[in-house]
Amino acid sequence: MLVLLALAGASAFAGPALGASGGASVGATAHRSKRKHRTHRKWVPARRTNPLSGRAMWIWELPTANGGNVASIIASAHQYGVRTLFIKSSDGTSLWSQFTSQLVAALHAGGLRVCAWQYVYGNHPVTEAYMGAYAVRDGADCLVIDAETQYEGKYIAAQTYMQRLRKLIGPNFPLALAGFPYVDFHPGFPYSVFLGPGGAQYNAPQMYWKDIGTTVDAVFAHTYSYNRIYGRPIFPLGQVYNSPPARQIVRFRQLSRAYGATGISWWDWQEASRGAWNALSRPTGNLAGYAAYTALATVGEGAQGDLVVWAQEHLITAGFPIGVSGGFGPRTLTEVQDFQTAHGLTADGLIGPETWAALLRYRPARIVWGSPAHARRAAAATASASASASGSVRYAPVPRSASRPAKRDEIAGAGGAGRPGRP
Predict the structure, then answer these.
(1) Per CATH, which fold does 306-403 belong to?
(2) CA neighbours within 13 Å on the CB side: how many for 299?
(3) 48-95 pLDDT tens trace
């Protein structure tokens, strides 16, 4: 662990004093030196409620949230009905000293839940896992993984990160992925690793409709039709940056309820106007007669991407052996048709809502990505903790679809990596 601490380097951001809370922030060096003598905290659920439930606000740089004054932050959170704060704790291999056990304790004392979030790149996945574990040890109620364009194509890194992180924080600690909302735009992104067995239990897609250039209704329909397939509860992440109209913020809240979300969060505190704060907190009624879009996305021959990987993993455990390439070619077409016939479905070779419903009754196959030697080492290291229900492990090269470029980075304007002006 001491080697990894050295690799982490200096903290990327030294936060201000805790202001009216009476505490002082702990610098990066001092913060790490304390950690050397402590063991990782195993999570014990102190509250019955999910830490992602209710209304939450993201904090990127603590000094920009009411000047870093913790008492003022607590007062504002209560004023606007915010129950949880997502506060940045690390960027890549660098800890942010703004996230401390003292800060967490002060916010807890003020009646708020505190989740840490880390921006990850995938170049040093083991060290990034330690960065996340440090925040958990400092008292975070949950951990959110902000993985974006830097992680596209990195199946091995994603698996390494998730395996080490789960080993450090335990299998049940609340973990969420905050990634791209449009799965079909990102064929190389390893959703099936981050949201698969042993991964994050929750999905918080960044549904920034104004940044994407669409409507609130469209961002919900598109996001949910693809993300539901991964079977993780969805907690929509909306935008208050870039000055969206208040009526759209209200609409986002209403649709989150219509789609069954039990929690909603907003990016981000430092860019929220007074009008945005009012819009995200004032009473709103439900949408009478509104029907949420419930159909799952259809995948067919010629498709490439992680949804095909996900389908192939489920076909394997359903008894239809197939390679996991991420490409929907003739062999996958045949296996899908055979699966459909066996389950009394129309054998059209399209994985649509009915076929997904039947396919997702099976657990995905346990895949260890990489060269055979790498895969065997990884499997041996985690076999007891992450074996699939069938008990079998398959070794596979990274799917060919991982090399497919993204159609677009639909949330590129949101920020979150590094500091503004300092990627």
Answers:
(1) Muramoyl-pentapeptide Carboxypeptidase; domain 1 (1.10.101)
(2) 28
(3) 579 999 999 999 999 999 999 999 999 999 999 999 999 999 999 999
